[in-house]
Amino acid sequence: MQTKNYSAALDQFVLAESFTTDRLRKAEAQSYRALCLYQMKRFKEASQLYLKLSSLGESPDTYLFLSAKSAYSAGDYHQALSLLDTFVDSYPDSKHYLSALNDIANTYYNMGNFKQAITDWLNILKRFRNNTRFDEQELTVVRDALLGVELAVGRFSNNAILEDITALTETFASEYIGFELSLIVLKSYAKDSRWAELINAAEAMRTEYPKRKNEEISLLMASGLMALNQYESADSLLLETYNQHKSPAALVKWAELDVLGNDYRSAFDKYSIAYRDSAVFEIWLNLLECSSQLDYFEFETLWEYRNKYPSSYSTANKFLLRYLYNRGRLVEAISLADELLNTSLSQYDHALAFLIGGLIELKREDYPAAFSSLNKTIILFPEFRDIQMEAVVNLVSGLFRSGARTDAIVYYRRYQHVLDEDASQTLKTMLGLAE
Questions:
Q1: Segment 363-379, tens digit of pLDDT
Q2: Superfamily classification of domain 324-435
């Protein structure tokens, strides 16, 4: 029913209510009127009317519950919480009881009291401590509580909470609940980059739940091994995971490992297979990155896929700009650099446009313009260390090639802190400063 129809229906129910003196018919008309108000998003009025109905004797628990839900939808969380507290105290046997407990936790979550929300959702799960099977309604309640715990832990977690959840997992007869709570802890470790704890917890889960060879656990564990530079172990785990699941997610994580080892061709092949199964934007960007590291292998073919992402592909123009410069298509590169400066909201794009502009001027031996552009790039964009270092290397080497060795040494010493060890050593040797 459209909003305009609810409006017309509301008028009809108001009229029906005024015409009857029968208490039950009047209550029925008010009930429908409250429903119309709710559907019209007039939640505060709906809440007030449902609350009035809850005192009339017919289905008081349902009407009080609906009053609380309407207050929640209105964003009046304090009123919703007050009504829900009254409900759970008054109607412990109501069919809405567990839903009300979940709504209390949701209300605390939306009020920013994440710790209390976690406590309330865990208390809901404890009601199912001895269950090994669930009916449909119970499973919905359990899933909602688990999702709530995960969301709240993502906003507020500390060692005490994670330790409490870990200890709690062992008390459930249900493998499903124990497993899902353990996974929440695992994800929290990953979010906080607590890699050693993640790996230990993941190994324990793989042992405790051997029938649940969960891909997500393996991929989180692989992330931990990669972060700790245990590349060989990560490679073995990802090989096992991909052989078992044959999923794009496993291939993408495996390709990320290849990138860490600078094996861009192997990464390119893995991303390509994953892209055939799941042509998502992020994998396409990863392919472009690998292509740029492989002297733009199959770049033009990849670039043709941009039309699959009409609202997003402009963020990949940084790869195109590098490609145009690399292939000597300087007029097109200048045009794209100007476009990025004028239209892109990305500061990285601006930094790259300045850099490429300076490199093109350097290539054309317009030294004053090139040195000015490169120096501006270094000064204006210190947050992009890769761009800054490339600008320093080309500024110093350009000055040296132009015959301005003294200036080259001055700028080298001024910006030496920007350079990594290899770049610094290369420039020192070129300038005759090597010990």
A1: 999 999 999 999 999 99
A2: Tetratricopeptide repeat domain (1.25.40.10)
